[in-house]
Amino acid sequence: MDQRKRLERHKALLEWYEALIFGAVLVILLFTFVFRVAVVQGSSMNPTLQSGDRVLLWSAGYTPQRGDIVVVDGYTSYEKALCKRIIALGGDEINIDFASGEVWVNGQLLEEDYIAHPTQLSEGVSFPLTVPEGTVFVMGDNRMNSTDSRSPEIGCIDQRDLLGRVVLRILPVTAFGVVK
After folding, report:
1. Element (H or E) spanning 170, and its range?
2. Domain 37-178 is of which CATH architecture?
3. Where are the domains of the chain?
4. pLDDT in tens, 29-75
5. Is 43 a catalytic residue?
6. Which of 4, 29, 58, 91 is deepest in the core (most CB within 10 A)?
7. Total-model pTM
8. Catalytic residue among 84, 126, 146, 180
C-alpha cells in the first residue's frame, strides 16, 4: 500500500513536469514563429511610441499594409533595428511636398493624425517615387527627427526584412495597450 501511494505521487509529479515542459515548448514556439518582442530605440516614432517602449510584434504570416507600424530587422544593411510606419507598398507612387508638409500616395493626400510635425525634412530621395515591388516605404511619426525611407541610406525596405507588425505596447505598464 505504501509503495502504491509513492507510485501515484510520482505519477502526479511526472504529469506536472510534462505540463510544464509542454507549456515551455509552446511559449518558445509562439515567441519564435508568431510573436516577437522588440524595444523602440530613439524618438522617431514620437508621439505614438517612446524610446524604451517594449512592443509585441505579430510576425506569423504577416502581410504589410499601409499604416502598419513595423520593426525592420537590425541584421540588414541599416545595421540597427528600425521601428517605423508603412506609408506605401510596392507599386505605389509616393510624393512629398516638403513646403506644405503633405504626403501623397497614388494621388491621394494622407490623413496623418499620428504625426508630431508635418513632413518638411527632405533627406535626399527625389519625389515622386514609385516604390519597387517587394518593398515598402516607411517613415517615423516624428518626421523632423526620423531617418527613414526618405534617406538614400535607408531607402525602400525589402518586405523580407520586416520582423512583424507592432500590435501591443507591453512596457511601460502605465502605457500598456494596442498600438495604432
Report:
1. strand 162-171
2. Ribbon (2.10)
3. 1-33, 37-178
4. 766 666 788 889 889 999 999 999 999 998 888 999 999 999 998 76
5. no
6. 58
7. 0.81
8. 84
